[in-house]
Amino acid sequence: MTSATFRLEPLRRVDLARCAELETILFPGDDPWRESSFQAELDAGHHYVGAYVPAAGLVGYAGISVVGGPGDAEANVHTIGVDPGWQGNGIGRALLRALLARADEFAAPVHLEVRTDNAAAIGLYEAHGFTRIGMRRRYYWPSGADAYTMARPARVAEEAP
Q1: Known active-site residue 113
Q2: Which UniProt keywords apply (predicted)?
């Protein structure tokens, strides 16, 4: 396990090729996102953040979409990925929290899909208030792996007294 300080910043377009590279490492049995997929997400205005380590550059990325306005919004986590050499340093947790903060700006419930065999990710999501609400058989392609659909209720900021 590598240990280093990282920072979260808006995902830079110059790093989209690195995102696609990480996708092929992280999701070898499935159809990893290509650089153009990440480009389309940014072009659509979705919220993407990168985790950057000074000596290593981009080591993680995450994205979420929010549709609707405050009080009537819904959010969907599109992706979270961390370079295997940097996993275990809290990067995935920090990326998820950044996405959830974005959803909370809109008081939006959050949904996502996660492979049923990804115990680490499921544990992370459950620790952040997600529950399993469904199953999508053969969701991931071409592996045919199943996915849980998970959801976290909207978080509404407490009003000041």
Answers
A1: yes
A2: Acyltransferase, Cytoplasm, Ribonucleoprotein, Ribosomal protein, Transferase
